[in-house]
Specification:
alpha+beta; 2 domains; globular
Length: 491
């Protein structure tokens, strides 16, 4: 072999093609570096640049929403004050009739005034109870209560807090006072064990546990109407206590009175949803997708309530009255819808989004993926209602006004996939239970036989509709896959 001959393998050289394609090598290297950097950095949230005009619109909408929320909180405090006063046998709070909020242009100042009035009613309730238990004049009991309050340290008012924060805190204190009063009334109705010698702290009027008041050898429950006769007198009428020896004077019939006086308290507690719903636990089903994981636990299977299909006359709309087509089952098909908002998984039902603070159909907010969301009119041609655009781990709100030509009570049939929450005339009336196994979790809702009877229902509420317009605000949370909400009215 010639020593000067070039040595190579049979066939073309492997290096030769790349000499003329240096740009391809550079491109591959650049893409490799980009892939490595993305792998190292992990998922990246791509934020959308916010337009200045849109930002101003959203800020104005949020401000209006906060103002509506404060007005609603002030109305709630007025209602709590009046309910507490009524439960104590008083005529009612100052400014009864809904004009209180106009007294001061400063909502925080008005909230402080309402809080003072609520404290005054609570003080009167404690003094009345102390006077009854200790058998002392109510004026003396009131002085004792005031002395005790003077010794107690009072929380300092929040400094530099916005009016919204101040109103929210005072409204929460008012709700706590309402819940406490309800517990007191229930205890009086159901009976509280109290020792005669330690029934109450003389200096504070606070109840202490013990045995029922009244002594022994009594012959029946107290009537609270007349003094006992002779040695085996009637009971004293306090908390269903038994009659005592020596015939003590009759009490005030507190069991009967507390039941009647507590009706407004009970109704307001129910309207404000101060009671927590019970939880249902069971087996776990994984309903996950690549986009979002929503693992749920289910208990017993929930069958929709029965519907007589033969007697059913279906109607659509939101106006009920004489002159319309006859129907005994009405699908609410007309709504204003806003969403999607970014969901919070299972906590979405408890998370508060702007529409819950007050419905403003002209408002615009930032929703899921930082995109603007507005209220849009939606009339559903088919049952059930499906908000658009569809998104996973998302929250939607739907608002409707139902108009009736006279006062009437109607059944409201409610259902949704996944979770729903509903306010009727600004009162929370429905919260879908966590852990319920619904038929549409087992197969797509559009294939269920309940579609023919408008019965994708998981619960019912009997509600009183006032003559004129009645508002419904429904909140829908969707985890993954299909979603819908259903609101149907019947007599």
């Amino acid at each position: 072999m010639n020593a000067d001959a070039t040595s190579r393998l049979d066939g073309p050289s492997m290096v030769e093609p790349w000499r003329h394609r240096s740009w391809l090598l550079a491109s591959l290297a650049a893409h490799g570096m980009l892939a490595a950097s993305l792998y190292t950095a992990g998922p990246v949230h791509v934020a959308i640049k916010r337009d200045d005009g849109l930002r101003a619109q959203v800020a104005q909408s949020l401000q209006h929403t906060e103002e509506r929320q404060m007005r609603r909180e002030l109305r709630t405090m007025e209602e709590i004050r009046d309910a507490l006063a009524e439960s104590a046998g008083q005529a009612g709070g100052e400014g009864k009739g809904g004009t209180d909020t106009a007294r001061s242009p400063d909502p925080a100042a008005r909230a402080r005034e309402l809080a003072r009035q609520i404290e005054q009613v609570q003080r009167k309730i404690r003094a009345t109870e102390m006077a009854r238990l200790l058998r002392i004049p109510e004026a003396e009991a009131l002085k004792r209560v005031q002395r005790e309050e003077a010794r107690r340290p009072r929380p300092a008012p929040p400094k530099h807090a916005s009016p919204e924060v101040q109103v929210a805190r005072l409204a929460q204190q008012a709700r706590a006072a309402l819940a406490q009063r309800r517990a007191q009334l229930l205890a009086q109705q159901q009976g509280v064990a109290i020792k005669p010698e330690t029934a109450v702290k003389p200096e504070t009027g606070e109840l202490k546990p013990g045995r029922p008041q009244g002594g022994k050898a009594g012959q029946g429950p107290g009537t609270g109407k007349s003094p006992g006769q002779g040695g085996q007198g009637q009971g004293n009428g306090q908390m269903s206590g038994q009659g005592g020896q020596g015939g003590r004077p009759g009490g005030k019939g507190i069991v009967q009175n507390s039941a009647s006086r507590g009706s407004k308290v009970e109704a307001l507690v129910s309207g404000l949803a101060l009671g927590a719903p019970g939880a249902i636990t069971g087996s776990s089903i994984d309903m996950s997708s690549n986009a979002f994981s929503d693992s749920r636990s289910f208990g017993a299977f929930l069958e929709p309530p029965p519907v007589d299909a033969a007697a059913m006359r279906i109607g659509h709309g939101r106006t009920i009255g004489a002159g319309g087509a006859y129907a005994n089952r009405i699908f609410l098909d007309t709504w204003y819808v806003i969403g999607p908002f970014e969901g919070a998984g299972h906590d979405s039902q408890n998370a508060i989004y702007p529409p819950e603070r007050g419905v403003d159909l002209d408002a615009v907010y930032y929703g899921k993926n930082d995109l603007p969301v507005r209220w849009t009119f939606q009339q559903d041609a088919r049952y059930p209602s499906i908000p658009l655009p569809r998104a996973e781990n998302a929250v939607y709100y739907a608002y409707a006004e139902v108009e009736v030509d006279r006062d009437m009570d109607l059944w409201v049939w409610i259902g949704g996939d996944d979770d729903t929450k509903m306010w009727f005339n600004d009162r929370l009336v429905w919260l879908s239970g966590d852990g319920i196994d619904k038929p549409w979790y087992r197969q797509p809702f559009m294939t269920l036989p309940e579609m023919r009877t408008l019965n994708l229902t998981e619960g019912q509420r009997r509600l009183h509709f006032n003559k004129g317009r009645n508002s419904i605000l429904l909140k829908l949370y969707n985890g993954v896959n299909l979603m819908f909400y259903s609101v149907v009215l019947s007599r």
